[in-house]
Predict the structure of Lipooligosaccharide transport system ATP-binding protein.
Amino acid sequence: MSTGVPASGAGSMIHAAGLRKSFGGFEAVRGIDVDVRPGEAFGFLGPNGAGKSSTMRMIAAVSPVSGGTLRILGMDPATDAQQIKARIGVCPQEDTLDTELTVRDNLVVYGRYFGLPRAEVRERAQELLEFVQLTEKADAMVDDLSGGMKRRLTIARSLINRPDILLLDEPTTGLDPQARHVVWDRLFRLKQQGVTLVLTTHYMDEAEQLTDRLVVMDKGVIVAEGSPLDLIAAHSTREVAELRFPVPTDGGTHQPLAEKVADLAERVEVLPDRLLLYTADGEETVAKVHERGLQPIATLVRRSTLEDVFLRLTGRTLVD
């Protein structure tokens, strides 16, 4: 699987400058700049409605650009959509498998859409079934598969044309933890083979596991860009102490409690059921909280994550 360095775009597989997408009077993507390098795993992280899927549809050459510049593999999707589609793979958020066909035939029929010779597409289908660990299910009907198996089959189908770029929109939404990790493993192996991965997710652990570099999106704009570790280092502390308290029954907030511990942390976030204290040493901070007579119903000390970065940048959590 080749990376296929593009003919233009300064070596970028995907180049966007001032990219916009409007639906009537609503602007879903509000002028973003993105460059995806050959062979990297690049992520768009943000909540539902951030503009991630709208951006992916423009990159997939299925939704016209409303403004700005977009080049995919050095080509303009406005004039070269068919050539672009021939060299990318798309794994949509919802599985669109043909339930009337077997697992193998889902791959074979899809491969024929790309004009691949019958013998080649059957060989390719067998390779992909082995790659996504579905060889034993080759003759089963799609409805007999678990959710995780369907997701792996959808990924296999998106690889039938040996794409230079694989687009994945929320690749593990709805899967249980074990199934998610199997999908992550397959995607990591693809990256090792040189495929450029571009994914959207609202799972911070998925972004941390899979991406070399990502942008954090909110309300159609990019609010931060970098590697997961760099973003955490720039926008959060080493540790977070979570202090859970009963939700106030009078409709109030935990702000009065936050004021009592504000000097114990670099910053304090007030959530409906808990306080987040951002600090270099969570255990020491929790001990000082107890010394002040406060008695949370539960405490947790953890490392900072991309969720904390997003909360710092936008004032809300990824699942809001």
About this structure: The chain has a mean pLDDT of 92. The longest strand covers residues 26-36. The radius of gyration is 23 Å. The domain at 236-314 is CATH 3.30.70.980 (Alpha-Beta Plaits).
